[in-house]
Specification:
Strand order of the largest sheet: 1-4
Order of helices and strands: HEEEEHHHH
Strand content: 5-15%
Structural class: mainly alpha
Oligomer: single chain
Shape: elongated
Number of strands: 4
CATH topology of the largest domain: DNA polymerase, domain 1
Helix content: 40-55%
Number of helices: 5
Distance between the termini: 55 Å
Number of domains: 2
Length: 165
């Protein structure tokens, strides 16, 4: 099932990202075939227009595969959060400030559930990311150089200056 889920996500051309991040088996012994397996599926979709249909498609894929195998399953939705779009004006200001400071940048989408997605409900919001070494984030191994942190702060400061002009 996990392989099928990954194949499905990799075939999609709309930026869908899927992660199976936690797997547990019962009884969980080294030399016993598991009676049951539980795993989490984190699927992120950046396009709110296809959000519901993608979730429906995912659930149908699970249903079809489980039926083909003749096994039982229980699907529990833990949390569903629709994608949000940040303020085009703020994103534009961040890009202009990055250019002004001659910093390289990319405009990227993030599927991470940062506080900004909730703040976006009450105020214009955007995020400034700084690179983590080897792309590792949200982990004890995460490391970002002080030089890159300073660049992020400089961009934020410059954007704030532009906003109060």
């Amino acid at each position: 099932m996990i392989q099928e889920l990954n194949r499905w996500a990799n075939k999609k051309e709309d930026g869908t990202v899927l992660t199976v991040g936690k797997i547990s088996t019962q009884p969980g012994s080294v030399n016993v075939i598991p009676a049951s397996t539980m795993f989490t599926v984190d699927v992120r979709i950046y396009d709110s227009a296809v959000f519901e249909s993608t979730l429906t498609e995912l659930k149908q894929l699970i249903e079809d595969n489980v039926q083909a195998l003749g096994t039982e399953y229980n699907l529990k939705e833990i949390k569903t959060q629709k994608p949000v779009a940040f303020s085009p004006q703020l994103v534009n200001l961040i890009e202009k400030e990055s250019q002004k400071q001659e910093y390289s940048y990319i405009n990227m989408k993030s599927g991470a559930g940062h506080d900004a997605m909730y703040m976006n409900e009450i105020a214009e919001t955007a995020m400034i990311f700084v690179p983590s070494v080897n792309g590792i984030s949200h982990s004890p191994e995460e490391y970002t150089s002080w030089e890159d942190i300073e660049k992020g702060v400089n961009v934020l400061y410059g954007v704030m200056e532009r906003l109060v002009e």
